Amino acid sequence: MPQIGDRAYSKExxxxxxxxxxxxxxxxxxxxxxxxxxxxxxxxxxxxxxxxTYNRHSPSGSSHYNWKGGITRQxxxxxxxxxxxxxxxxSMVKTRSKQVLQHRLVMAEYLRRPLKDNEIVHHxxxxxxxxxIENLAIWLLFSRYIRxxxxxxxxxxxxxxxxxxxxxxxxxxxxxxxxxxPKHNANxxxxxxxxxxxxxxxxxxxxxxxxxxxxxxxxxxxxVADELEVExxxxxxxxxxxxxxxxxxxxxxxxxV
Length: 257
What we know:
The chain is of the alpha+beta class. The protein has 8 helices and 11 strands.
């Protein structure tokens, strides 16, 4: 009969794997058995029966020893956060995991209301887990300003506007602030390079570039498309004071339009 701490190779025990095993007792029921050795210790402290029983009755949620505030990271870099059913933001939950994208939750808490599905929140610096409100809020202001500006320019009403790519008239709530050149720090807040677009052109047609180019030329002149492409090649980093100044500027522009 092996003694606690004895070791044996897998082939000696008739196992196919190439590992070292150690004779150890279960932490709960004290049953002795061979356990795979890792760093000089048994890989599992409990036997299979005790482990299953412990997992069924172990604390969950905030009572669990490994609780991290209900925050997890997705494979694409975005953070998810658990939302309780009594939260005012429960309507934003769309999955069985009861989690929402953390940057959307941060924005919702900032606005003190749940976000609608068509309200898109962007990370200014492109870092998907940087969910500081100052890295999120300014885009929402800029998007609102662009859509208001173009609604008034094309229809004279703040409630309806024309898509720059296809020319269709849509309600304000169904318009996006779409970039002509894909988003980059240099053109993120370009007032000529971002215009009101219907969701079909912006999302489903990936910007509808041909229609967008025609709309830009009609709106700003022949050279604007080339100028925007040159602008996008520049390197731009925003300092905190620049973001603060931009936020004030956008607030004033929204009041004006």
